[in-house]
Structure formats: C-alpha cells, structure tokens
Amino acid sequence: MSPARNDRPVPKLPGLTPAPADERARILIVDDDERNLLALRTVLEEVADVVLARSGEEALRHLLKGEFAVILLDVFMPQMDGYEAAQIIRQREQTKRIPIIFLSAVNKETEHLIRGYSMGAVDYVFKPVEPIVLRSKVGVFVDLYQMRREIQRKAAAEQQLLDENLRANAELLRTEQELRLAEQRQLAIIESLPIILYLEAPDAAPRIPKFVSGNFQHVTGYDVEELRRQPTLWQDRLHPDDRERVDQAYRDRASDGSFAVEYRWRAANGEYRHFLDQAVLLRDADGAPVEFAGTLLDVTDRKELELQLLQSRKMDAIGKLTGGIAHDFNNLLAAILGGLRLIERRISLDEDQSRIIGMTKHAAEQGAELVARLLSFARRQKLEPAPIQADVLAASVRDLLAHTLGGIVELKWNSAKAVWSAFADQTQLELALMNLIINARDAMPQGGTISVSARNDRIIHDPGGIAPGDYVVFEVADEGGGISPELLERVMEPFFTTKPVGKGTGLGLSMVYGFAQQSGGTIRIDSRVGEGTRVQIWLPRARAAARAAAPKTDATTAAMAPGERFSILLVDDHEGVRATTAAMLSDAGHAVTTAGDGREALDLLDGELAIDLLLTDYAMPQVSGSELVRRARGGRPDLPAVMITGNAEAVDSADLAFGVLTLAKPFTPDQLDQAIRAAVARPAETRVA
Fold first, then answer.
1. Using CA atoms, how far apart are residues 378 and 380, in angstroms rounded to an integer?
2. Strand ordering across the sheet containing 469-477
3. How many CA atoms lie less than 13 Å away from 505 in the CB half-sphere?
C-alpha cells in the first residue's frame, strides 16, 4: 500500500531524492550495438522504464539528468569502454551507489572478472543473454531501489504524521506496517548474499553484537545464540597471525569513527574463511555515539582467485628468470667442465686426485642438469626416464653429499632386499633426493641422523589419485622439529619457504613434486611437531621392456673412430669457454683460430683466412652468432657451421633453417667432435643460406 498524499512539503533524507509514488524505476542500458539495445529493452521494459545509451559519453549525460535503479554496461565499446565508464560513475557522489551489471560476450577469464569487480561491478551477464536470468537479476536491484524510495517516503510520512498528532495515528500505523514489510523483503534479499549485517555497542568488550542478520549461521557455521553463550568465541577463532592487527583496528575505531579490516576466521567446520569487516559509528542528534553499524563480507572466493592469479604470475616469472640466466650460467659450467677434462687428459693423476677431479666434474655436470631442470620446470618439457638401480643411486648421492652435510649430521641409507629398478630421470631423481636430504639437514641444526631408504610397494586403489601398479618408494626421514599442520598444507607451493631470507628459494619441494608427478608417481609428506618429518617419492617400477631399452654407456660413444682433422674458426665472447674449447679442438688434432667476438671473426675472414668450419657462440654482443654465419656465407655459401649456446630454446628457428647445427653448453669433447663431423658431412645444398 502507498501512504496517503497531502500538500505539505516532504522532508528529504540525506543521500536520497524524493520521487512520486507512482513513478516507475528506470534502467540505463549502455551498448554500442542497436540490436543489443532493442533486445535488452524488450526483455526489461516490463520490469522498469528503460533508457538507452549508445556510448559511455551518452550514458554519463543521462546520469546527470536523473536517477536509475541499475545500469547495464557493455564492456567493449569504442572511445570509452565499460571499465572507464564504470570508473567515472563510481567517482561521482551522485552516481557511485548505482548498481552496475557488466555485459560481456568474451571476457570470462578470472583476470577480467577481478578487474570488473574492482571497477565497482556487482554482477556479470554474458551474451547471449538468458531473458529469465536477466529479468531476475535486474528485478532484485529494481526492488531494492523501489524499497529505498519507499523507505524515504515512509520516513517523510512518519514525520508528518507525528506533527499531526492523534489525527494521523491510524495512518502512521499503516505506514509502519508497510515499512516492516519492506524491511522483510530487504532482509530476504540480504540473507541470500554472503554478507552479515550487525549493530554493536561502541564500548562492547568482548564483541557481542546487539543485532545480527539471519545469514550469520550460513557464513560462520554458528548460531547467533552460541556467540552470546561464549562471549570470547569471535576473538578465540581469529587466525593467530591476524589477531594483533584486528585488535588494534578494534581499539582505534572509537577515535576514528569507523574501521575496515580483513582477516581470517576459523568457521565451525575448522576451515579458515577470509572476512572483510567494516563498520561506521552512528551518532544521535547531539553527536553522542549510539552504535556501530557494520557489515561482515565473506571474501574467501575472491582471495582464492587472487592467489591463483599470483601463482600464474610467479610461474611466468620463474620461466623468464631461468631463460635469462641459463646462457651465463652454462658458460661458467662449460669453462669448468672443459678445464677439468683437459686436466684429466694432459696431467697424470694419482687415484685420490682422480677421484677428487671426478667428483668435482660430476658436481659441475649436476649443475648443468640443474639449469636444464629449471628450464624444464618453466617450459614443462618431457623427462628422459630410464631404469634406475637403488644401490647405484645411493652411491652417487652419497658421493655428492660427502662434504656437504657436515660432521654433526649422519646419513644412513637402508634399502630393502631385491628393490626393483625405478623408471625415472636419474639426474632429476638424484637432485630431488639431494634436495630432500639438505632440507632434512637444515631441520636439525643441532645434528642428528638422516635416514634414506628404498622399498617396493604396490597400489591397488588409492583415493589420492595415484594409478594402480608397482612402485619404488624412496624415503628421506629426519629427527628435526617437524612441520605444523598449517604449514604442512603449503610446503609444496612454489616459492613458499620457512627458511630465513637468502637461505632458500622455496622451489625445492615444488620441483620434487613436479618431477614425481611428471614421472607417473607422487610425493607424500608425514610430519609431527617435535618428532620429525618423513618425505616419500613414489616412482613407477621399470618394466622389462624399459630395462632392455636402456641407453648405451659413454664407452660406446668414446669408442668412435677419431676421423679427419679440420681447420676451424672458433668465436666466443667468454674467455674461459673459448680457451677450454680451443684446447679440446687442439687435443683432437684440429687447427684452431680463435676470435673474441663477431667483428674480430669477420676481420679474420676478410683477411682470406682459410677454414673448413665456423664454430661460434650464439649470443654475442654487436654481431650475434647467427648474423656472423650469414655474413661469413656471403663469400662462401656452403661453409659448414655449428652454433654453441647456453640456452637452446632461445635460438630462433629461422637460424636453423639453412643447415646450422646447435650444440648445448656445457658439452663433452665427444659431443663437440660429433657436432663438427655432422656439420661437415651435411650435403652442401642444405648449408646454403
């Protein structure tokens, strides 16, 4: 029912503009497509009066002339798009509270949705539009708008009825009934949203609200009466890391007159929810504080979207980082490995010296594999699995860690009898075990025992998702302080670490997990505070076919015939790599001329230097390796060429289209020899640029 009309002036409430009771709500639809405007008007003209705008500028002009219950705003428009228009609408005091529903045909990605909501959108509707859904969504905001105007009119009518004393009593009662009905409708709408409305005394300690909306149990899992029976319930279930910050905001709100704080709160089911708690202080006519009116909004879903977006950006960052450092790092490793191999060839070493050189060379080779693993992690390249024997793996890992663990930590390797061969990438498994062992050492600063074991196991059915079959389980156990349940859920997240700054990257366990998953296995962690941690790597058992297909040893490659000698121009801007590579070539019997960069090499070629092959680094300043090959072949189109690089993925495919072979750093003398002979053996027509 509508309140009785009269000729007396109607007082205005703050922020509200009186409107005639029979005036329909208006909807503003903004779209640059005439067909969309016609279709939307047809769907919504029964709900409210429809005003059409064909651009963001036209929409802003309409907003200067009157009120609207809701705005339907197309995201993509020429000149001013929907995001820009929404931002301007939210900046104006007169229009910032009008609900905005974005219309979009394509942008369903999380990033675009987050951007839309940050611009002030309350909802998204995707084209093609479902008429019933659109009318339902718009109808809610039209009802809210009508109720807002209704409440305004009723408040004005109440003031008038009070002035008219007894004569207006009957009309006042009718108005109050209608107001209660409007409040009930509004409450029903609020209860369908993940939000709690509350009223709280300014000096409430502990926090016990005077009024809470009916959505409290849905959001928190608790009944309001439980909060009153346990006055400290709200404070007790705050996340420990957020408690001090929330308490400070609560103490400051009396002087500030408002507060807004985001925190984690443990719901009845034990899960932490993210809440945005906001309130303002209401005062009476004399300015005395009356109560805080606030909202508690569940923003857990939004936080999860933000974390997913952050995770995606982190993974993109690590990909760019590893690609950038690979070249320089591999240059250093190439120089180290080349120098060690020259020492082995040119100097007679006793048994102890040979063992030290061998261990150092193996560690450097593992460093090269680490770079390759980082690149593989960033680009998700395929692994190179092969059968792995537990006893061979134990010896290799023990040698690598002999001088790393320190005297206060003891490493024990206990393998069960007749352990199957695992089918995985051996180098990455070695790195994974080393990573886990070093983590175990760091968990025992006072010393202790690290137990490494291998055993057979069989999965028939696993609710965790691992496929049924035979597995080899490698376990690393320590006697450290253990990991709390809260941190245990996050230890395999990339970039998460509990170590001090500079002591860990947070990539270790995530890379072990990725390796196990890509190998067809999994990783399992069991930890108890005060007792220690056990980490298991489950890898598939190697089958007979896989064992038969095991790669040949280096001896097969080393037994190749030495072959012909060549005159080679070697170009590399890294002095260490250039020197060790030149020594390898000389030891193989080749005649070597060196140049420190592309310009020096071109000067040598212009001086009519006679060569059989050009061996050049790919990434060099001023004149790159690919440009050097092109210009060198200007005078000799069939010149064989090999490009060496620390990051093979960075080589442009166009540089390989005219018969240029690539050789990845660091490389062995045999790999270098094979690349040279393959380049020379190529038919001349395939080497023409």
1. 6
2. 409-415, 448-459, 469-477, 532-540, 522-528
3. 11
Q: Each residue of 343-377: pLDDT tens digit?
A: 877 787 787 777 877 787 777 777 776 666 555 54
Task: Locate all alpha helices (DSSP H) within 527-668, ordered by sequence.
Answer: 544-548, 554-558, 575-587, 598-606, 625-632
* CA separation for the pair 24, 139 (Å, rounded): 13
Structure tokens at 632: 């060198």
SS (H, E, C) 149-198: HHHHHHHHHHHHHHHCHHHHHHHHHHHHHHHHHHHHHHHHHHHCCCEEEE
Residue that wins the pLDDT comparison between 496 and 475 = 475
**Phi, psi at residue 615, to the nearest 5°?**
-115, 110
Q: Where are the beta strands (DSSP E) in 367-420?
A: 386-388, 409-415
- Coil, helix or strand at residue 87: helix
Quote the tokens at residue 14.
Answer: 């703050």
Q: Are strands 522-528 and 532-540 parallel, antiparallel or unpaired?
A: antiparallel
Percent of the chain with pLDDT over 70: 78
Report pTM: 0.37
Question: H-type helices in 238-299, by residue range?
Answer: 240-256
Cβ neighbours, 10 Å, residue 268: 12
HSE of 2, CA atoms in CB hemisphere, 13 A: 10
